[in-house]
Amino acid sequence: MVFRSIFAAAAVCCAVDPVSAQQYINLLEGENVNRHWMKPNGSDVTAGWTFEPGNVLRLKSSGNMVTREQYGDFELWFEFKVAAKGNSGIKYRVKQYGNNWLGLEYQVLDDAAFPKLTRAHLTGSLYDLVDPIPAVTRLRPDGEFNVGKVRIQNQRAQHWVNGQLMIDAPLSGPSWKSYVANSKFRQHDGFGENLLGHIMLTDHKSETWYRNVFLRRLGCSTTCGTVCVDRSKGSQ
To answer: If you count Cβ atoms within 10 Å of the first and of the last residue's Cβ in the chain, which end, N or C, has fewer?
Structure first.
């Protein structure tokens, strides 16, 4: 598949150059979702998520799937579209809270079908936590793919939709605690402050399409533990 125009304690600490990053990996490589993805219980994905021509991953109804690996700081590019009245999302730094697998969510939604929702529940938001910066989201016409981007670095989350910066928010400190306290996640102690987690494609029983899903780690890999030394800013 062609990547087109889109593009604390730890056992071990690593020295990280602030501009260093690994190469992008294709999370839809090989037309077999199980190379990089699995069900939350660790089993293979066997139905529901299927490939169409052009390495487009289509979801009908199968349940959520998560990456086999966990990621800390990373940059994720992807293209997405959703059916009429559809609802999906990409969650990151996902981990288990009791019986639930939860994480921070880049919302994917047919915004026009839900005019009564607040901005914190529309496409590109940090779902139920942080409102998008712009008053109007630069979405493409129905049926066309949009370009999404998520960047997580130094406990800061940034979301883009079609090149438009939507979210630029801290994932720690007083502001973050205030976001969580006013959200549906307030009962989960330390929600969103974990430094590692899976990436999840969510199934909300809506037809959704993803393509060109590329990720690169920023800074340490998971083999280096959860705390990294940034030469420009000290410890994360």
So the answer is: N
